[in-house]
Inverse folding.
């Protein structure tokens, strides 16, 4: 599944689109050099396909590429980052 990113005015999201609608998203806000992840949601039709993990991975890769840190306020994103050791280098 292709994960896209959209950002405007220090708010953004990583998302998956299907038929012109977002079917999964991980929303964040930027504060200086920190990405504050505050919400992750995956539609029922994509449950069990590891789409949430793909969203978090995209956020981690973006953070690394742009030398920013992640503050995972979203319980799902925090659980994934805490579980996957290779993601922990981007934690604020």
């Amino acid at each position: 599944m292709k994960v896209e990113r959209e950002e405007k005015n220090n708010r953004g999201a990583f998302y998956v689109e299907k038929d012109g609608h977002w079917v999964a998203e991980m929303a964040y806000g930027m504060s200086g050099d920190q990405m504050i992840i505050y919400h992750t949601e995956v539609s029922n039709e994509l449950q069990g396909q590891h789409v949430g993990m793909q969203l978090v991975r995209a956020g981690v890769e973006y953070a690394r590429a742009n030398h920013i840190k992640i503050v995972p306020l979203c319980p799902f994103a925090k659980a994934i980052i805490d579980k996957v050791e290779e993601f922990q280098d981007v934690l604020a």
Notes: The radius of gyration is 12 Å.
